[in-house]
Design a protein that fits this description.
single chain, mainly alpha, Serine Threonine Protein Phosphatase 5, Tetratricopeptide repeat
């Protein structure tokens, strides 16, 4: 199998996992995301997507691990930080969530998600 074919297959696995997540087929989404991350362990997008799937299934500690991994791999991603902050807040970890939203606003002072969430801390 050529490198191009392998890359396409790996990318398709990620897209399939995202589609399963959107459809609410979380078990299948998790399986696809984990298989994708076996091939691409340094993919911030893959870790973020897996983290989102895990929070939907109630695997909160694992979700936070994956979302933190995504942020560690791509610390400038406001999207990944927002997902992490939202997850912290959903779990009642408001101080941790606030820190993430503040970091987002340092990078993007007009970020709508972070601004909206910061209103709750006022």
């Amino acid at each position: 199998m050529s490198t191009l074919t392998l890359d396409r297959t790996v990318h398709e696995r990620l897209q399939k996992g995202i589609a399963y997540k959107i459809e609410g087929r979380y078990e299948e989404a998790e399986s696809e995301m984990r298989a994708f991350l076996e091939e691409q362990p340094m993919s911030a997008r893959g870790h973020c997507e897996l983290g989102l799937v895990l929070v939907f299934t109630g695997m909160f500690d694992e979700s936070l691990e994956e979302l933190n991994q995504a942020v560690n791999l791509d610390p400038l991603s406001c999207e990944f930080r927002n997902h992490l902050g939202l997850t912290y807040c959903m779990l009642g970890m408001y101080d941790e969530g606030r820190v993430e939203f503040e970091k987002v606003l340092e990078q993007d002072p007009a970020n709508a998600v972070a601004l909206r969430q910061m209103e709750f801390f006022q």
